[in-house]
Amino acid sequence: MEYRISTALISRPMSGLFDYIVDAPVEPLPGARVKVPFGTTQDNIAVLVRTAQPGQTAALERLELKSGELLDDLELIPPDVFALCQYAAEYYHYPLGQCFFTALPSLLREGRAAAFKESPALTLSVKGRAADAELPAELKNAGQRQLFTLLKQHGAPIFKQELRDRGFTSYALAALVKRGLAEEVMQSTADAHTWQEDSRPVLKHAALNLNSEQQEAANAVCAALGTAQNFLLYGITGSGKTEVYLHIIAKVLERGQAALVLVPEIALTPQTVERFYQRFNAPVILMHSALSPSERLNAWLTMKTGKGAVLIGTRSALFTPIPHLGLIVLDEEHDSSFKQGDGLRYHARTLAQQRAALNSCPLVLGSATPSLETLQEVMSGKTVLLQLTRRAGAAQLPEIVLIDQRAEPLTLGVQTGIGITLENEIGIETVKGNQVMLFLNRRGYAHQLICHHCGKVITCPHCDTPLTVHRSDNRLLCHICDSAFPLPRTCPHCGSAELLENGYGTEQVEHYLKLRYPDVIVDRLDRDAVKTKADLDVKLAHMRAGQTRILAGTQMVAKGHDFPGVTLVGILDLDAGLFSDDFRALEFTAQLLTQVAGRAGRAERPGRVLIQTHHPEHPLLQLLIQPQTSYLTVAQQLLALRAQRLLPPVSAQAFLLSNSSVREKAHAFLSELMEGLKPHLPEFPGLNCGPVISDKIEKRRNRYHFHVQVLSRDRNELSAFLTLAQRRADIMGRRTDVRFACDVDPLFMY
To answer: How many Å apart are CA 310 and CA 611, to the nearest integer?
Structure first.
């Protein structure tokens, strides 16, 4: 039977719906994919949005409409995710088809069948199964022994990707195969039953006992199961938020429902991920950027078909179909990686609230440093605050001390980021056998290369930014577009050989520390030192084992790691965040300081945090170092300051963006757009529109970027204005090489 359908193209960034005719035995459902002709191409993938009833397709309409091919018998995007995409399209003013694009794995976007793919798995060989209770003598490596024990206990094959996600290195996997103790097999999840059919209890073993605060928090969420209630689990670093999540999830699974756990970056939380595998008999599925297209499709289908019970993923996992969804957890909800920076510029927290409402399930936002947006929701009564104010076990909060850099002698260490006071303290702690962690949010060796003769700074030819010196591989690197160039011997502008390296980064800090402390192991944790998950696993393992005594790094060192041996944390340079023109800078600085400080003193040994600064009198620093001050105290003061200035979250903010490879075109487009909107501005009395100005870094990847900032006390008013702006931009038509977009609730100033 023929049906008239309306579809949203996912293969093209176009607004609006397009009608086609499809032939199907039964009425096709919204959420199914359709292959349709559009323009000069025949194989465009679209998602069916609505269907006309049988018999409504007139003969004349049939002649005028092109035919499409239905790819799915049932909807591929279930109703709750379908509604979530519709909400995202409206809230973020983005084409509906491109929202569906975000919700589908890449193979499904290409029109491939929604079918499980076989993936490599590891299982014990005949020799491995024949081994007695004792571990085989040839397994001398701890990782290999743990892997062998896991395979023996599990019995069935385990996907290799799961083993890597659980912290086992590719070397350990290959070693067992080489010794004949394990073998690789191809496996598919297609024939697996739903997890609810498993007769085993949900828990593999008894859960840990919660303290009174943890129990109170878990009870509050469990009492709200089946309702769309939002919670903020505010817990100081080391207070045991993960254990609260695990207790709540156990209750959810016992109800026969599934759970979704969103984390900023899975690679940085292997210990946390392993706790989920160790706790539950129900299948735990991971979804992150390191998966191959087929592995991602398998994970997506495993959840969609009800074969997975707990999904742990980064922000895009939010769009995964999950039948009987009973809980959403957004861990480290303050983390900026939950905001998508291009395309559909969504924030996972905003859409998680909507999906929880669609599924009538609780949303738990966890953080030691919650965002001001979430705290505003608490103050308005929309979110319930749950607090964990005590560290788990015997751990105590660290002492925080300011080091006035103005009083420090100008030593070689100071020029490399480490003053004499911090240097002496590092020496004392390492002599005691303790570990030290140092934080600097700048990677590379030197911030820039300057010609002493002509004064020119060597900049990226594709971006308006200085090239950073990376000594380890003798090159200059752009941290915007990742372009790399050989380290020059002479100035490209005047030919002088007098080149000066200015500023310092984590690579230079590591170099100095190795010279200063040759008797201990010094390591570095940043994007340059960690190229793969295996690199990260090795560095974290060395740190946990106590082999690494001094670890220097960027924000990667603050991402929830638990190193009991760390008694001293040094923050090398915090001043840039104290005097930024971004109104969010103080919030980010307070969050970063609190998170980094939280790495110290997490076991029985007391910890200290030393902050180097040229501005020890700054009110934020003075407030943060007070023992009685909690992050909530600081956040409440920052919220009051935002309210005085009518800045988010008190108001709603958006940016109108344009860019082009021709500077004049990008500027002219926004100028013409705003000129066309000017007569309508009286319709939006609470709106405040800024001028058309260039971004802080105007040239990025050979394109010139401009923006207009828009603020309003009324979110509905802002949304109505953005709708008008989008329509006006559509009327202006597609300009050659000009790209236009809206960024709603931006996290960073352009």
So the answer is: 40
Distance CA 610, CA 537 (A): 27
Residue 120 CB partners (closer than 8 Å, separation 6+)? 159, 160, 184, 185, 186, 187
How many other C-beta atoms can be found within 10 angstroms of the C-beta atom of residue 133? 5
- What tokens does 381 get? 């009564």
Span 27-67, pLDDT tens digits: 999 999 999 999 888 899 999 999 976 555 555 455 578 99
Q: What's residue 90's pLDDT?
A: 97
746: nearest Cα among 685, 684, 655, 678: 655
DSSP 239-295: S-HHHHHHHHHHHHHHTT-EEEEE-S-GGG-HHHHHHHHHHBSSPEEEE-TTS-HHH
- How deeply is 564 buried, as exposed, middle or buried, from its count of CB atoms within 10 A (0-12, 13-18, 19+)? middle
The residue ranges of DSSP E strands in 39-104, in sequence order, are: 41-51, 69-70
Question: At the fourth CATH level, which superfamily is domain 2-109?
Answer: PriA, 3(prime) DNA-binding domain (3.40.1440.60)
Residue 745: name the closest of 656, 658, 653 by CA: 653
For the chain, the first-to-last Cα distance in angstroms comes to 52
pLDDT at 391: 80
pLDDT of residue 84: 98
**Which amino acid is residue 8, in one-letter code?**
A
| Residue ranges of the chain with per-residue pLDDT less than 70 | 53-63, 132-133, 267-269, 393-395, 560, 602-604
pLDDT of 544 reads 87
Of 274, 272, 250, 251, the residue nearest 263 (C-alpha): 272
CATH class of 399-443+505-641: alpha beta
Q: What is the pLDDT of residue 60?
A: 43
pLDDT of 481: 96
What is the three-class DSSP state of 649? coil
Give the three-state DSSP class for 643: helix
Rounded (10°) CA dihedral 657, 663, 666, 669: 140
Residue 589 and residue 578 in contact, taking contact as beta carbons nearer than 8 Å: yes
β-bridge mates for residue 230, sequence order: 363, 383
d(CA 224, CA 442): 43
How many residues appear in the chain? 750
Q: How far is CA 207 from CA 203, 309, 735, in A?
A: 8, 18, 60
H-run or E-run covering 159 = strand 158-159
Q: Residues 6 or more apart from 229 whose CB is under 8 A from it?
A: 362, 363, 384
Q: Give the residue among 62, 77, 64, 63 at the shortest CA–CA distance from 28.
A: 77
Return the pLDDT at 602: 66
Tell whether pTM > 0.85: yes
Domain 652-744 has CATH 3.40.50.720: no
Q: How many of the other CB atoms lie within 10 Å of CB of 686?
A: 15
Identify the CATH homologous superfamily for domain 195-388.
P-loop containing nucleotide triphosphate hydrolases (3.40.50.300)
